[in-house]
Write a structure and sequence with these properties.
The chain is an alpha+beta fold and 907 residues long. The protein contains 22 helices and 32 strands. The strands form six sheets. It has a six-stranded mixed barrel with strand order 6-7-12-8-11-10. The chain has a five-stranded mixed beta sheet with strand order 13-14-15-16-17. Strands 20-19-18-21-22 form a five-stranded mixed beta sheet, sandwiched between helices. 22% of the residues are buried.
Length: 907
């Protein structure tokens, strides 16, 4: 490897005899006359080949270098000191390998010490790559004939030297004392802290020999090459495995009994529950709160089912963690709202658990991204303006690629449909580049005329610069659909389906002849009346019925040929124009009817959905691996509204337009809820502007978004208890002054803050009848299992002053309806009484009008009346008309009941 500039001794190298070569390598050719006439193409001598030529200059040998290192340690001499070896080496070159006296063979390389240029070193075929020493970029060579790591002395700092030396035997029979150093390498062949020998005239900056951990020359680690390009295969092999995302539970590992008791004592809502000591009874179900061994429990008893359970009342800091375990964990499996709530209520409870679980599940990022497409309702159809001029607007699209090309190599079909006449065209294509599509369109325009508008999808063939220039030259206005919403171009999409179906049937025997069936298929499509217009496309385009197979068959069978009226050209044009005008007018009327009918059918399962600018949404897009698989991606922000149902979305710096059917509102989770108590949150600035917010939760249907009813029993009593002004909750964002002002207002009007219905003194519910004959019905039978429940409900209503015992001649039956949550609702069947009731035409203000009037308002208040119907008294003379009868007793309403015709108008 390391040699002086002098040429090594080659007198001992013996050329290989031609006869020996023939006998050893080409035994089968030794007897031929051609073998003796082979010559070297370098020295032109016969009897040898270039591989074993002895006249070739040794500087052209492309082999590795050999280094023998004596392991004996010696004193450090003067730097770069060279001494001669007294023991003469016996060497012999055989096949490019130098055989030493020790019996070891190493590759021959000459004049390498003079090759300081890395490019020249690479030209010799040596494995030289880029690497680093202490952050500096260097050239690194892998030498299989070396037994150590060698580095150029100029690249080593004095602090890296160990003070030891090593005797290095070079291939030119000279020895050199090289200093040892510990260096940090980062190379494709070896990396890490290694001991290296430092010499000033190394062939390369770093030479790596056969040391432990070194990679073979043909297998370098290319990721360690400085500035090297990374291939896709390397990225795939070296892809870093992403760590598994697990919920953060560090803040809840240390929760024990004492900590739980402390958190409960710091929660004012829990203290209020214990101090009140109230017990709620409703329908055989009892709810109470008690403290056992310092922990507050909620006790729930169902006497009918013999259920008696105790729930731990959770303080605020632990609620979100419990919900995450019940919903986000592996055992939670991201189930729906109802099942998640059942999990939580199996062991825990807190005031407002229903709303918290509902909001937590609705704001789950995983659930929102994986919800089924069908659970998001479609928006209603919008009427498209009808076109009454033939070929004013056309729709174009491409069909394909077709798996079985035609004999002529066609794999695609260009389709065109006119919006007015429904006249269709189809052209088979071998390729769908812009030039091929443009030529086919121009060929169609040459027969039918150039349209004013063209509607297409956003395929590259239709929106390329070349096609835009064609539209400009022809004076055509281009319109495109939104991405992944082919419904916008439904006219041509429906024709595509018809075209593929008919072609599949026509060419079933000769599949590769399908391109010959396109024109007959188009004739059949244009000849028959279209469902929306009730006219054939031929009639609307030409103003006459074309002669087709049916006409020819009739003429052959009947021998009847209609004699045409002889008219002048002028008369024919006038009649044709009149006939076309009348036909198009009728076709437009039929199109309007069809459009209304289709919209009515489609809108049955739709729901009006609107998004605001700045709102976060998820977009239904194909996956990165398969365009036929779709998933919700985002969230993205809405930039602006385009039209009625289209929105422009900001997607990573690019703005794209999408239809509302591909969008779904994204509900962000409030991270600071249930994470800290009120005292732990930073105080709000006194200059903050007070604001109220209303959260609107949209029911999107489906099991995942299936909102359950409220819990069977109220949190704090219903009929047997009363909430007061002390139970009011104030927002944590309020300042101290704002909170104090609200408390003063609440105390001033404390009488209205109650869950027991009051009495309105300004209005009474009146019942006007068209007949004075009392409506009387027999009571409906009630199952024995529900009779006690009915008695309890009526007793509670009587205690509240809503009903009283009656002797009225009127009697309507009672119906017990089972609610979703398993509880029962008492309803009165007033249907026969409502038939005789005089209708109150007082209209209710639509919500849209109410919201329109609040456009410029800043503050919004949401007021929930406590049993609002039962706060309005019934006019005294009309009380007997509200009477109802049960299996046990006869009652009448003192307050306005549910189910009467004019109850909503009175409210």
């Amino acid at each position: 490897m390391f040699q002086s500039n002098a040429r090594p001794r080659m007198d001992s190298v013996r050329p290989l005899e031609p006869e020996k070569f023939n006998d050893g390598q080409r035994a089968g050719e030794a007897k031929t006359s051609m073998a003796d006439q082979r010559s070297c193409f370098k020295c032109k001598k016969t009897g040898q080949i270039a591989r074993y030529c002895t006249a070739v200059d040794s500087t052209t040998k492309k082999a590795g270098a050999g280094v023998v290192v004596k392991t004996a340690e010696v004193r450090k001499p003067a730097e770069g000191h060279t001494m001669e070896v007294t023991d003469d080496l016996q060497s012999e070159v055989v096949g490019g390998m130098l055989k030493l006296a020790s019996g070891k063979s190493v590759p021959v390389m000459t004049n390498c010490a003079a090759l300081r240029d890395p490019e020249k070193t690479r030209s010799l075929g040596l494995p030289v790559l880029k690497g680093e020493i202490g952050g500096r970029e260097v050239d690194v060579m892998r030498d299989t004939g070396c037994e150590r790591v060698v580095v150029r002395k100029q690249l080593v700092d004095a602090s890296q030297l160990t003070g030891e030396c090593c005797l290095l035997l070079r291939i030119d029979n000279t020895a050199l004392l090289a200093e040892k150093a510990v260096i940090s390498l980062r190379t494709p062949f070896l990396s890490g802290e290694v001991k290296a020998l430092c010499i000033p005239d190394a062939i390369c900056d770093v030479i790596i020999g056969n040391v432990e951990g070194a990679r073979r020359p043909e297998d370098p680690d290319m990721s360690m090459v400085v500035g090297a390009a990374t291939t896709r295969a390397q990225v795939k092999r070296e892809a870093v495995t992403k760590p598994l995302r697990v919920p953060d539970i560090d803040g809840h590992v240390g929760v024990d009994r004492e900590h739980l008791i402390k958190l409960q004592q710091e929660d004012p809502r829990i203290l209020a529950l214990v101090d009140a000591g109230r017990t709620s009874r409703r329908g055989g179900k009892i709810v109470s709160f008690e403290k056992a061994r310092g922990i507050v429990y909620r006790r729930y008893q169902d006497l009918g089912r013999s259920v008696d359970v105790k729930h731990v009342v959770l303080p605020k800091p632990l609620r979100e963690y419990v919900m995450s375990v019940a919903h986000d964990s592996i055992t939670g499996a991201h189930l729906g709202i109802r099942r998640t709530k059942d999990k939580v209520l199996s062991n825990f409870y807190w005031p407002g658990v229903d709303g918290d679980v509902t909001r937590y599940c609705r704001s789950c990022d995983v659930c929102q991204r994986t919800v089924k497409k069908g659970t998001v309702p479609r928006v209603p159809l919008e009427k498209v303006p009808l076109i009454d001029t033939p070929f004013k607007r056309v729709a174009i699209d491409l069909v394909g690629p077709i798996n079985l090309p035609s004999e002529a190599g066609h794999r695609f079909i260009l389709t065109l449909v006119d919006y007015t006449t429904r006249f269709a065209e189809a052209v088979p294509l071998r390729k769908i580049d812009t030039e091929s599509v443009a030529e086919a369109l121009v060929d169609i325009y040459s027969r039918l005329g150039v349209p004013e508008e063209v509607l297409s999808d956003q395929g590259t063939q239709f929106i390329s610069d070349c096609m835009k220039e064609i539209w400009r030259l022809l004076g055509i206005k281009q319109k495109t659909t939104t991405p992944y919403h082919p419904m916008c171009n439904g006219l041509v999409e429906r024709f595509n389906a018809t075209l593929k179906t008919c072609l599949r049937r026509l060419c079933s025997e000769q599949p590769r002849q399908w391109h010959w069936y396109i024109n007959p298929l188009l004739f059949a499509y244009r000849e028959v009346p279209q469902e929306s217009t009730h006219f054939a496309p031929f009639e609307l385009l030409y103003g006459r019925t074309v002669r087709g197979p049916m006409h020819i068959l009739r003429e052959l069978w009947t021998k009847e040929i209609e004699e045409p009226d002889v008219k002048s050209s002028y008369e024919y044009v006038l009649n044709l124009r009149e006939r076309l005008d009348d036909t198009l007018k009728i076709a437009r009327e039929e199109l309007e009817k069809a459009q209304g009918r289709q919209k009515r059918y489609y809108d049955r399962t739709t729901k009006r959905r609107k998004f605001s600018v700045g709102e976060k949404v998820l977009v239904l897009l194909p996956t990165d691996s398969n365009k036929f698989l779709i998933q919700w991606k985002g969230p993205f922000e809405i930039v602006t509204t385009v039209g009625i149902n289209d929105y422009r979305i900001n997607m990573g710096g690019k703005e794209k337009t999408f239809h509302a059917n591909l969008l779904k509102g994204y509900i962000a989770r409030d991270q600071d809820t249930s994470q800290a108590t009120t005292e732990e949150r930073p105080p709000t600035s006194s200059l903050a502007i007070p604001a109220a917010s209303v959260t609107v939760i949209e029911d999107l249907g489906g099991e995942h978004f299936n909102d359950s009813d409220c819990e069977a029993l109220p949190e704090l009593g219903g009929w047997g208890s009363e909430e007061t002004v002390n139970d009011l909750k104030y927002g944590d964002e309020l300042t101290l002054d704002q909170r104090r002002q609200l408390e003063e207002v609440a105390v001033t009007y404390s009488s209205v803050f109650s869950d027991r219905p009051g009495t309105a003194l300004t209005e009474e519910h009146c019942i006007g009848l068209t007949s004075s004959i009392p409506v009387r019905q027999r009571p409906f039978p009630v199952p024995y299992a529900m009779r006690q429940t009915l008695r309890d409900e009526l007793k509670e209503m009587e205690d509240l002053g809503v009903i009283r015992k009656s002797s009225s001649p009127y009697a309507s039956p009672v119906v017990v309806v089972k609610k979703k949550d398993g509880t029962n609702r008492v309803c009165i069947d007033y249907r026969r009484l409502n038939k005789l009731t005089i209708f109150d035409p007082q209209p209710m203000t639509p919500p849209a009008d109410i919201f329109q009037g609040m456009e410029k308002d800043q503050y919004f208040s949401k007021i929930d009346l406590s049993k609002s119907y039962w706060q309005i008294p019934v006019r005294k003379e009309d009380i007997p008309k509200t009477a109802f009868v049960t299996m046990d007793c006869h009652y009448e309403f003192l307050r306005m009941p549910f189910g009467m015709m004019n109850s909503g108008a009175t409210l």
